[in-house]
Design goal:
The protein has 179 residues and is of the alpha+beta class. It contains two helices and ten strands, in the order H-E-E-E-E-E-E-E-E-E-E-H. The strands form two sheets. Strands 1, 2, 5, 7, 9 and 10 form a six-stranded mixed β-sheet that branches. Strands 4-3-6-8 form a four-stranded antiparallel β-sheet, with no helix packed on it.
Length: 179
């Protein structure tokens, strides 16, 4: 658990230094809005889950300035009962050209565990599902202190098979040595 906390702290530190994951084609592009929800919001309580799928050319499992979005990736929101593990909800969505997805889920899932995950990369240059970032946990209840119905999931993604030669310099810039 301490290792996970350290990785998250490192991720947020690096994200604040390098900024958001940018497109390989246009690193200066302004951020675009997430695509329209994959399913229309039903009457009653619903949650909008938004996130990003990216490729990690450095195989370090967090975004760097050379990470890039993976468009047309199928993402799956799965909720399951805490005790039995029985699936209670499954909704699929797809990333847009910026690697962004948006999924609407109805109902309160206070007693369930919900994760957004990826399973297969559409990018042949970035085929490997990350060990640590192939899924992102999201809380789909309003009974935990989180206000509003929009949930921002942590970035999830894939890795290249061979480390990009630029990674050594990039990681040294942010204080990570020995890679």
């Amino acid at each position: 658990m301490a290792n996970c906390a350290a990785v998250l702290a490192l991720f947020f530190t690096i994200s604040s230094i390098i900024g958001p994951v940018t497109s390989r084609a246009d690193a200066t592009a302004s951020p675009k809005a997430a695509p329209a929800p994959s399913t229309p919001a039903p009457d009653g309580e619903s949650f909008l889950i938004q996130g990003k799928v990216y490729c990690d050319p450095c195989r370090i499992q967090f975004p760097t300035k050379i990470s890039y979005p993976v468009p047309n990736t199928k993402v799956i929101l799965e909720c399951r009962e805490r005790e039995s593990g029985k699936e209670t909800k499954k909704i699929e969505g797809t990333t847009d050209s910026n690697g962004m997805y948006s999924i609407t889920a109805s109902g309160d899932h206070e007693e369930e565990i919900c994760d957004v995950k990826v399973t297969k990369s559409p990018d042949q240059k970035c085929p490997e599902v990350m060990d640590d970032e192939s899924s992102a946990r999201v809380s789909l209840t309003d009974k935990n202190g989180v206000r509003g119905n929009t949930r921002q999931a942590n970035p999830i993604g894939f890795m290249v098979k061979e480390i990009d030669p630029r990674c050594k310099e990039i990681l040294e810039e942010i204080g990570i040595m020995g890679i």
